[in-house]
Amino acid sequence: MNAMTQDLLDQATIDERRARIVPRLQLILTPSQLKHKDEDLRPFETDGLAPYRRLPMVVALPATKAEVIAVLKACYAEDIPVVTRGAGTGLSGGAMPHEGGVLLSLTKMSAIKALDPVARVITVEPGIRNAAVTQAAAPYGLYYAPDPSSQIACSIGGNIAENSGGVHCLKYGLTVHNVMQATVITIEGEELSFGSQALDTEGFDLMAGLVGSEGMLAVVVEAKLKLLPTPTVTKVAMAAFDDLATAGRAVGEIVAAGIIPAGLEMMDKFSLQAAENFLNAGYPTWAEALLLCEVDGNEAEVAEHIADVSAVLTKAGAVEVKVARDDAERELFWKGRKNAFPAVGQMSPDYYCMDGTIPRGELPAVLKKIEDMQQKYGLRCANVFHAGDGNLHPLIMFDGNDAGEAERAAQYGSEILTTCVEHGGTITGEHGVGVEKIHEMCVQFPGAELQQFHDFKAAFDDKGLMNPGKAIPTLNRCAEFGHMHVHNGELPHPELERF
Amino acid sequence: MNAMTQDLLDQATIDERRARIVPRLQLILTPSQLKHKDEDLRPFETDGLAPYRRLPMVVALPATKAEVIAVLKACYAEDIPVVTRGAGTGLSGGAMPHEGGVLLSLTKMSAIKALDPVARVITVEPGIRNAAVTQAAAPYGLYYAPDPSSQIACSIGGNIAENSGGVHCLKYGLTVHNVMQATVITIEGEELSFGSQALDTEGFDLMAGLVGSEGMLAVVVEAKLKLLPTPTVTKVAMAAFDDLATAGRAVGEIVAAGIIPAGLEMMDKFSLQAAENFLNAGYPTWAEALLLCEVDGNEAEVAEHIADVSAVLTKAGAVEVKVARDDAERELFWKGRKNAFPAVGQMSPDYYCMDGTIPRGELPAVLKKIEDMQQKYGLRCANVFHAGDGNLHPLIMFDGNDAGEAERAAQYGSEILTTCVEHGGTITGEHGVGVEKIHEMCVQFPGAELQQFHDFKAAFDDKGLMNPGKAIPTLNRCAEFGHMHVHNGELPHPELERF
């Protein structure tokens, strides 16, 4: 059942499965909600991690909870794997289809069911876009805090699957801290509701277990999200450094000063120059590194905090510190940061965005190591990341038409993640494991934890039909990976088509 | 195996089990670490929920992780239930012993293993007292936020088991928000480590599943806790109301104004008078209700917030608003609140402390209902509680020597919890379910969630040996309870000795 550990299913098996499941699904869904011809399936073959792609066997687009239940029951009865998909913006291949499975797309379930501005809770369906939640809350002076950079497109269901973060998660937490309650459907069609509107909920905290479970446990059909009051005042300070390690140390200094910024982002020379060339954000192009530090709150507290931040940054060795003089300049500073990925993308035929975390104190050492690896792999690497929570996003630049470069990019990425683990960090900050980092999970969890994860999954999904082959490697696969890892430099997933 | 659904084991069975397990444990523990004679077992027969008591079969006091592993392996091999116990201050009977089981007391494992003031992480053993963590962190200008009122005595292991809160959890979260990593031992002796020092951790979030699991999954042997910088300035406003419902509405107004107080506590007339008589906190005894609202942060933000809070309270109908003029007066205000339970205790031979939550907006309605129930049950009920997070602590006063009163107190408590659920709340805010509220779990989870909880538990504890009979009722028991509930007014646990 593990898509990573077996060869792809042969066409005859796929055809046989399709012949079994389609008639059952036709009893549940209208023709426009059910796709099973190759040309209709093509748009679904990949999520945001384009190198990993597969044609799904069938795509189902339910519009109601009852339809979700019926589709899942049919798949369970016929032993057909199910991969749930939101907007398909995920960056770790978590929604990569199964060639012999149903891709369950939830884009038709995007309603707002309720908005209680007094309790500050919004009840939504999973397909709603992240930005649409804040849009709906704005008239009440409220907003939804988690803001992944794909927020215009990505869906709340996907955010829950990946436990998405964003620029503001240092202060306001990840998705898990902002979802109060979720109603899910298991592969057997059972409806379960976990969490509550209270701070604590009795029983085991399966709500937290569901958030970040990468579609491997159950399908979210409704969620109650916490809304926060929009801050009265927001200010941002930009600090330019003539040395990367000094900027890394400054991050620790800010947090050590007792300030929790609403956002604390870092760009290295390559990224800030790319961003500046791309859209004139006003960045000093001489700088080796740039920090953007945002504080929010009421008038008095922001005034005091921005003064403190500026003083700490200067003392920590910033050559220039500039507080945006108004909202327009603040937005310009952020525009550069938010478009740094596409800006870097313009400089290279392809780039590979990594996502690992390290304790803040390790920033100077790890940044140096990543920089030094450039020579080893013969590839450039830019760094644009959530410095405040130690969440790195190295962008490895390569040319996908050059097989050697693509392979070296994958190896470079893998070494970055292993380095993160060696420095007490993790192999993903907010993008999830998916198919991309399934091997690195063996590095992250060398002990009995993986078996515990499998047991936990089995408590929801006894047949192993929910998103098989993602996020949690089999123990066999880890043994095999250790072997590969020592003896040669194979691609993580040679069995998958790349580009 | 479920202590709630079966008669107590007979003495012959207990003796036979004890004869099997004691020799095995003698190979692991010194004589002072192993108690199995009735007179030595007596001090362990109850936790903080005194009505529920049982003599454990054996008490084991391991001093190292290796000893914990060996004890659990022995119990697993001999099919002996294990109840883990911290300081025994729990208020829901979660650590009530099993008459045929080993009580695993972790008081000898109370070391601080590491304190990193830069990363703001402290690594501790489970038996350390909550207050000792903050004491150790204080020299670095840091503290541990969760502060249950038992913090002088209660242990971090117990806090993790119960997901403890406290006065400050509205702003700083519960235990689950302040534990970064936990190392646990399963009943099979397997060591597992969940969580990380990063915001997100890959794999399923079993860390959150462990917090609040009431000793039913595994034994915590080490935890990394988040430390916070001690706020520079703290101020408290006291508001007196001539009407309980108005005070309830004022709570909503404060939060609606965008202020997140560090603490927002409420006392009704009975409690504030009791507290005032007990230790002259300076409370206006004419008031029908009192709110204490604390704000913390830097100088400027506290000045602005305390002014805002005072204005909101006045506008919301407070007759008198008084900001403590200095730290001495602030501590006096809090002293009254913190000693309100014993103060109320002085007014009655016995009292029963309830713990339910409701959405803040429901406070006025639910407070009124609880007040009205006094007449129905012929008992007085005082209210002292964490108003900001809607976490009620009604104190039902009764005379334990009068069987009728004790029974009515239990029924009164049960009706309060059912009322909380009806108003969209939960049956516990921070005390846990334990044995006390196991029946109300049937009300809270009428659907398939309970079965999911059992499946989840089985993924850790296939034989069901960890704290059997607590927190998660069997489905049979719920069916039976529904029957009881409809047909008569029996005590929740007639099979248990009371007092």
Automatic annotation (TrEMBL), chains A, B:
<dbReference type="InterPro" id="IPR051914">
    <property type="entry name" value="FAD-linked_OxidoTrans_Type4"/>
</dbReference>
<feature type="domain" description="FAD-binding PCMH-type">
    <location>
        <begin position="52"/>
        <end position="230"/>
    </location>
</feature>
<dbReference type="Pfam" id="PF01565">
    <property type="entry name" value="FAD_binding_4"/>
</dbReference>
<dbReference type="GO" id="GO:0016491">
    <property type="term" value="F:oxidoreductase activity"/>
</dbReference>
<dbReference type="Pfam" id="PF02913">
    <property type="entry name" value="FAD-oxidase_C"/>
</dbReference>
<dbReference type="InterPro" id="IPR016164">
    <property type="entry name" value="FAD-linked_Oxase-like_C"/>
</dbReference>
<dbReference type="InterPro" id="IPR004113">
    <property type="entry name" value="FAD-bd_oxidored_4_C"/>
</dbReference>
<protein>
    <submittedName>
        <fullName>FAD-binding protein</fullName>
    </submittedName>
</protein>
<dbReference type="InterPro" id="IPR006094">
    <property type="entry name" value="Oxid_FAD_bind_N"/>
</dbReference>
<dbReference type="GO" id="GO:0071949">
    <property type="term" value="F:FAD binding"/>
</dbReference>
<dbReference type="InterPro" id="IPR016169">
    <property type="entry name" value="FAD-bd_PCMH_sub2"/>
</dbReference>
<dbReference type="InterPro" id="IPR036318">
    <property type="entry name" value="FAD-bd_PCMH-like_sf"/>
</dbReference>
<keyword id="KW-0274">FAD</keyword>
<dbReference type="InterPro" id="IPR016166">
    <property type="entry name" value="FAD-bd_PCMH"/>
</dbReference>
<keyword id="KW-0560">Oxidoreductase</keyword>
<keyword id="KW-0285">Flavoprotein</keyword>
<dbReference type="InterPro" id="IPR016167">
    <property type="entry name" value="FAD-bd_PCMH_sub1"/>
</dbReference>
<dbReference type="InterPro" id="IPR016171">
    <property type="entry name" value="Vanillyl_alc_oxidase_C-sub2"/>
</dbReference>
